[in-house]
Design brief:
Strand content: 15-25%
Helix content: 10-25%
Number of helices: 11
Strand order of the largest sheet: 5-4-3-6-7
Low-confidence stretches: 1-19, 339-345
Shape: elongated
Structural class: alpha+beta
CATH architecture of the largest domain: 3-Layer(aba) Sandwich
CATH class of the largest domain: Alpha Beta
Radius of gyration: 27 Å
Number of strands: 23
Largest sheet: 5 strands, mixed
Mean pLDDT: 82
Distance between the termini: 61 Å
């Protein structure tokens, strides 16, 4: 009796206390997990196919989890609305939902099957369950997905729309009725490209879903103009048919990676430490020693300097500029460099403010973010979030690379505190 009471008290505490979880509207972290039948599930693949995904994070010892699991709510959801052709899904399915159960507390398959379990399990969670069950005991999958989804109480049930935005829905008896909050489709296939035609006007929920269902020819863009970007000077397929080149080799012939040499007053290349370097120049043929102008200047002994030309700040490369740093140039009512004002945006991403002080806001659908300094060094990474804390970054210019599984966006920001 004492053991049973302890379990009941623990279950009630776990169920009722308010803990942190992913805030509604967060972008769902991607995962690839293998279920008990050996089938692999990639979350973003379901979004790219237009499905709304319901994920039940439960623990075998949790009473409320067992109660919801045996209520039949998610069973009915999967059978009547799950992916057409999937095991146990009705032939009359609406084909717009996926359901996944994750035992997120690291307990074994034996615990799920109620065979042998070192902790308490409420029964056989597997028999009769029509949708995939995923175990996180470390044998095949780890409990890192639990951390990624900030699970603080059991059960936590997320509804994730095709645009990857999450909502914690509790133990709803009719979860399908909640799916109407998902944004209507906004992407359309023109036959040669995928375009955003506005919410409710399209056929597909995401660029990925459109690209998967539309016969898009390979096209290529040259990434140029962003000094220090690891992809600068490379040809990339945007994945939506909108590239400037239909032949990758033609793109590569005209796509040049920035590089710089330290030169003396006569224009001759000099070695670092010679004391004769007066400027850093781009030879225009990828033969330079240094990947970034700032990196070359630092080693060549040339001071950073800026001029305001035609209303835009420019770096002469030889230390002769009027302003000692970019911020001083901008403070003199001169606009940031034209290349900083540009961006490569294959994701329809918006970032603001720019310049940024401590928090960079990101509007749009993506999976991960990387920030590089102008030496090409990776200085900050993050999973998808609406707000990125940049307090750790010093004042200066940075490159922001935002990615999902199909495309990417590249922008430059200025940190100014």
């Amino acid at each position: 009796m004492k053991k049973i009471l302890t379990i009941l008290v623990l279950s009630l505490i776990t169920h009722n206390i308010s803990y942190a979880q992913l805030p509604d509207g967060s972008i769902a972290p991607d995962f690839t997990l293998t279920d008990l039948d050996g089938v692999t599930h990639n979350l973003y693949d379901y979004f790219n196919d237009g499905y709304t995904v319901f994920i039940d994070f439960s623990a075998v010892w949790c009473g409320p989890c067992w109660g919801y699991h045996t209520s039949g709510a998610l069973e009915d959801l999967y059978i009547n609305h799950g992916p057409a052709g999937y095991p146990n899904v009705s032939a009359n399915t609406t084909d717009d939902v996926m359901v996944i159960f994750i035992e997120g507390d690291g307990n074994s398959e034996d615990c799920l099957r109620n065979i042998s379990c070192p902790t308490t399990t409420h029964g056989d969670w597997v028999s009769g369950t029509p949708y995939p069950i995923i175990c996180t005991d470390g044998t095949v999958n780890t409990a890192s997905v639990t951390s990624a989804y900030q699970i603080g109480f059991w059960p936590t049930v997320y509804m994730i729309c095709p645009d990857k935005l999450t909502t914690e829905i509790g133990t709803s008896s009719d979860p399908y009725s909640l799916a109407n909050v998902c944004a209507p489709p906004a992407w359309e296939c023109t036959g040669t490209a995928c375009i955003d035609v506005g919410s409710g006007n399209g056929t597909f929920f995401s660029l990925g879903e459109c690209a998967n269902n539309c016969q898009i020819a390979e096209t290529w863009n040259c990434i140029g103009g962003f000094d220090g970007d690891p992809n600068q000077g490379k040809c990339v397929d945007p994945g939506d048919g909108t590239g400037n080149h239909t032949d990758e080799s033609v793109c590569e012939q005209t796509c040049i990676t920035n590089s710089y040499n330290c030169v003396d007053a006569s224009g001759n290349i000099v070695s670092i430490g010679s004391g004769t370097g007066v400027a850093c120049v781009n030879p225009g043929d990828e033969s330079g020693t240094y990947a970034t102008l700032v990196g070359c200047q630092s080693l060549c002994g040339v001071s950073e300097s800026w001029n305001c030309n035609d209303g835009f700040c420019e770096e002469p490369g030889d230390g002769s500029g009027t302003y000692a740093n970019l911020q001083s140039c901008i403070s003199a009512n001169c606009s940031p460099p034209t290349e900083i004002m540009q961006q490569i945006n294959y994701l329809n991403i918006q970032i603001y403010p720019n310049p940024v002080k401590d928090i960079l806001n990101i509007k749009g659908d993506y999976s991960s973010l990387e920030i590089y300094n102008l030496y090409g060094e990776l200085v900050l990474t993050s999973n998808a979030k609406r707000n990125i804390n940049t307090e750790s970054l010093s004042n200066g210019i940075y490159l922001v690379k935002i990615k999902d599984d199909k495309a990417f966006s590249i922008s430059k920001i200025i940190i100014s505190k």
